[in-house]
């Protein structure tokens, strides 16, 4: 399982985390994105778990294990998160190394 928080827009996130908003504004010019939903993952690992459990990998992971090992328990989510980070669209994602926080902007 992974953690995620959803915010309706930048102002809603500002109410909870002013510092994170300031970092976002240093990275992106304030524009239309600031009025869209923001998904905040507290770690790169949580982001990778989301992608496996409910995101881009959901269709290829068979959850009917019968007597096989649970593949989800065998994945190195930290390594997967690092690889995903290298390929993502930098207009839609933000990663803060100091806090290990990932933000996805839903355009």
What's the arrangement of secondary structure elements?
Blueprint: E1 5-7, H1 10-16, H2 18-27, E2 37-41, H3 44-53, H4 77-87, E3 93-96, E4 101-106
Antiparallel strand pairs: 1-2, 2-4, 3-4
Summarize it.
This protein is of the alpha+beta class and 107 residues long.
Name some characteristics of this structure.
elongated; alpha+beta; 107 residues; 4-stranded antiparallel β-sheet
Q: What does this protein structure show overall?
A:
It contains four helices and four strands, in the order βααβααββ. With 107 residues, it is of the alpha+beta class. It has a four-stranded antiparallel beta sheet with strand order 1-2-4-3. β3 (93-96) and β4 form a beta hairpin. α1 crosses α2 (18-27) and α3 (44-53) crosses α4.
**Mind telling me the C-alpha Rg?**
15 Å
Strand content: 15-25%
Please tell me the overall pLDDT: 91
Major sheet description: 4 strands, antiparallel
Structural class: alpha+beta
């Amino acid at each position: 399982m992974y953690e995620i928080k959803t915010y309706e827009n930048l102002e809603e996130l500002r109410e909870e985390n002013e510092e994170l908003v300031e970092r976002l504004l240093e990275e992106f010019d304030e524009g239309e994105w600031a009025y869209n939903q923001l998904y905040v993952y507290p770690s790169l690992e949580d982001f990778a778990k989301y992608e496996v459990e409910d995101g881009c990998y959901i269709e290829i992971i068979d959850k009917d294990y019968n007597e096989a090992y649970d593949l989800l328990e065998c994945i190195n989510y930290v390594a997967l998160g690092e690889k995903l980070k290298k390929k993502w669209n930098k207009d839609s994602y933000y990663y803060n190394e100091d806090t290990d926080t990932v933000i996805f902007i839903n355009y």
